[in-house]
Amino acid sequence: MKLLFALxxxxxxxxxxxxxxxxxxxxxxxxxxxxxxxxxxxxxxGTSYSFEHVGSRPREKFENWPQFPPLRSETxxxxxxxxxxxxxxxxxxxxxxxxxxxxxxxxxxxxxxxSKKPLQIFVTQNGDxxxxxxxxxxxxxxxxxxxxxxxDYFERNQPQWKCALVxxxxxxxxxxxxxxxxxxxxFPENQKIILMVSAFIESKRVLDGIRAVAQLPDAFLVVAGxxxxxxxxxxxxxxxxxxxFMRVSLSAKEMPLLYQSADIFLHLSLLESFGNVFLEAWASxxxxxxxxxDRLRWILGDYGHLCDxxxxxxxxxxxxxxxxxxxAGSTNGIERFAWSNIAREYRSFISSL
Length: 353
What we know:
CATH superfamily of the largest domain: Glycogen Phosphorylase B
Strand content: 15-25%
Number of helices: 13
CATH architecture of the largest domain: 3-Layer(aba) Sandwich
Number of strands: 13
Helix content: 25-40%
Structural class: alpha/beta
CATH topology of the largest domain: Rossmann fold
Order of helices and strands: EHEEHEHEHEHEHEHEHEHEHEHEHH
CATH class of the largest domain: Alpha Beta
Distance between the termini: 12 Å
């Protein structure tokens, strides 16, 4: 098959959606499909797929810009600049199917009128709202196949679209049990390192994480990420837990060592489309503290310390319980999420269409 994966952050960021789709693309290309990625980064050596640079302006440039439908956020503004350039780079006649998780602008660009109409595959990495809502710009959504990253999305959308339930995966060659290197990151040696891998935005609840970890006197909180709330988070940490907070921005290459250098993984989103970070933490053997939902239990099974994280007392108790667990937990079952297995499910679904 000749496939195009399009997303502004490809080869530029290592966020969840980018990691997931690039990993699937690499595994499909390695198995023999002809795969092209279009993104705002630069080509990398050693990839099985081909890459084409399509420029965009970073979302950080739009944090203070006006927000209105369909430009509802800084992410939408970034997507619009990428889609404008994608229209010039994308030739529908070159592909059998195109894959994205970006709506609305990239989605619209890939569906532009053409005599050759490749299959339109949409992945719910950032949510399934476009697929089922009939409000505003969401009424324009259409696809030939919808890949749902959790059972809720699959059940909700199956009556309307051709759907497949396919989870995300993890690179087990990179994320695995290891010794770590606290000195490399400047972490204290005599405190429990609690790690959050989150953007500094409201839905990730980093401020709630600071408030909870502040109640554990032997804990040091590390947050890997960036976003509009970075200064507010720093100010709160300086007040509640001075000297016990650090924000880091690392390359994708450094992330496995970061997980290995921590003691506990904390993630406070109330509901994620999937959450690749959970698999990365699990593969690294970290105890996981997160919000208790059926969706997360579908991913983790009995692994992790799940609780009502909106109840601060329950959250603190879960962190204490996690701190008493084995420093290197069991990784049994993680093999099901190897990217090679996930890519086979993508290929099977697209082939069936």
